[in-house]
C-alpha cells in the first residue's frame, strides 16, 4: 500500500525538509503542499490524501480549524500536527480536533519517521479490520454445501479484529478458546494451560514447538501486539467501537492508558499484559 501524503506549513524550507524525509525513507508519495489554511483545506478536499502533516499556526485559517472542517465533511484523512507551540490547552485542543500525533519543532528526523510510520500502521490496521468485517461469515447457511463452524469463525474474527491473526501465538490462543469447556475444570493456573498445549501438539503430531516456555512466549508476544494495536486505536478514536469493546474486557485500564501514553510519546514505558485476563476475556467475547 503506497500512502499519499501532503505537507502544510508557511515555511517553504520546512516543507522541503519534511518532503525529503518522507521520500528518502519510502514513507509514501507527496501529492501536494500548501502554505496557508485556506489553500490547504481546498487541496485536502480535492485530493483526499491519506496523511497530512500540518502546522498548527497558519496564515488565515489555523490548523485546528482546517482539520475540524475536513472531519465534518467525513473525509478520512489522518492528521499529524507540527508546531513550536507547547501550551497544553492548545495541544489538547489539537487532539480533540482529530489529529493522530503531535510533532514539535524543530523537526527531528527520527521522531518524524517514527510518527509517520505509526500512523501508516494504524491505517493498515483499520483497513484490515474493515476487510475482515466485510468478508468473515459468522452464520451457517442450511441450504448451502459449505458450513462454517460458528465458534471458530468468532475466534478468527476476534483475532483478526485485534490485528494478531497472523501472529504465531494466535494458534495457541485459538486452541485454548476452542477447548475451554473441557479445560475449565482441569486448569488452575497458566502453567497448567501451557502443559495442556504442550500435550495437545504432541498428540496431534503438529510441527510446532511444544516446549512450555516457547508456548508462553508466543502467547505473550501475540497479546502484547494486541495491546499495542488497541492502544493505537484508542489514541486515534477513544470512542471507537473496537476500542470500547475490547479495551476493558481484555486489558487492565491502567495498562491501556500507559500504552496509549507511550504511543503518544508521553511516556518511555508502555503498558503490561495480563495473560489470564486476556484469555478469559477472549472466551467471554467468543461465547457471546
From TrEMBL:
Task performed by this protein: May play the central regulatory role in sporulation. It may be an element of the effector pathway responsible for the activation of sporulation genes in response to nutritional stress. Spo0A may act in concert with spo0H (a sigma factor) to control the expression of some genes that are critical to the sporulation process.
Biological process (GO), any one: phosphorelay signal transduction system
Protein name: Stage 0 sporulation protein A homolog
Gene that produces this protein: cheY_4
Domain Response regulatory: 4-120
Recorded superkingdom: Bacteria
A Pfam family the protein falls into: Response_reg
Modified residues annotated as 4-aspartylphosphate in this record: 55
Keyword tags: Phosphoprotein
Amino acid at each position: 500500500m503506497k500512502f499519499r501524503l501532503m505537507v502544510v506549513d508557511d515555511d517553504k524550507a520546512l516543507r522541503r525538509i519534511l518532503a525529503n524525509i518522507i521520500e528518502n525513507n519510502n514513507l509514501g508519495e507527496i501529492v501536494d503542499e500548501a502554505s496557508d489554511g485556506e489553500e490547504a483545506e481546498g487541496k485536502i478536499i480535492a485530493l483526499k490524501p491519506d496523511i497530512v502533516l500540518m502546522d498548527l499556526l497558519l496564515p488565515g485559517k489555523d490548523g485546528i480549524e482546517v482539520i475540524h472542517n475536513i472531519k465534518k465533511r467525513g473525509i478520512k484523512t489522518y492528521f499529524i500536527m507540527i508546531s513550536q507551540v507547547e501550551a497544553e490547552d492548545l495541544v489538547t485542543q489539537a487532539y480533540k480536533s482529530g489529529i493522530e500525533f503531535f510533532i514539535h519543532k524543530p523537526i527531528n528526523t527520527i521522531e518524524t519517521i517514527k510518527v509517520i510510520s505509526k500512523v501508516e500502521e494504524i491505517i493498515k490496521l483499520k483497513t484490515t479490520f474493515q476487510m475482515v468485517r466485510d468478508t468473515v461469515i459468522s452464520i451457517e447457511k442450511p441450504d448451502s454445501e459449505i458450513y462454517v463452524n460458528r465458534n471458530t469463525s468468532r475466534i478468527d474474527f476476534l483475532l483478526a479484529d485485534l490485528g494478531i491473526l497472523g501472529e504465531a501465538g494466535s494458534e495457541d490462543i485459538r486452541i485454548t478458546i476452542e477447548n475451554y469447556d473441557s479445560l475449565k475444570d482441569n486448569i488452575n493456573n497458566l502453567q497448567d494451560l501451557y502443559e495442556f498445549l504442550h500435550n495437545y501438539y504432541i498428540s496431534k503430531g503438529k510441527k510446532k514447538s511444544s516446549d512450555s516456555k516457547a508456548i508462553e512466549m508466543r502467547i505473550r508476544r501475540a497479546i502484547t501486539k494486541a495491546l499495542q494495536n488497541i492502544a493505537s486505536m484508542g489514541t486515534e478514536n477513544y470512542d471507537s467501537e473496537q476500542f470500547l469493546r475490547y479495551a476493558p474486557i481484555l486489558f487492565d485500564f491502567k495498562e491501556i492508558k500507559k500504552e496509549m501514553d507511550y504511543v503518544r510519546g508521553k511516556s518511555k514505558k508502555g503498558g503490561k499484559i495480563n495473560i489470564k485476563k486476556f484469555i478469559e476475556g477472549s472466551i467471554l467475547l467468543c461465547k457471546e
